[in-house]
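Ticket opened by: R.M.
Priority: normal
Category: complex prediction / small molecule

The reporter submitted a protein together with zinc ion and asked that the result be attached to this ticket for the collaborator who will pick it up next week. Submitted input follows.
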Amino acid sequence: MAKIRCLECGSDIPRDAWSCPHCGEPAQAAAGGQTAGAISTRGMLCVLLLFILFPVLLFLLHIFVPEL
Ligand SMILES: [Zn+2]
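Result attached by the on-call engineer:
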């Protein structure tokens, strides 16, 4: 398993670890933000989906519940 060095305490931690087991520093900072980048991309997709789905849901609501 590839290891990275914690920027905070300098110990070797697993590359796929979320945080340093020694000092608790988030591992993404030491890993160069690769994992954080993937998460933020997924988050952007979720936000985009919400922005697309929300008007569609409102539209469907107006169709099926005319008294609103
Ligand atoms: Zn550490």
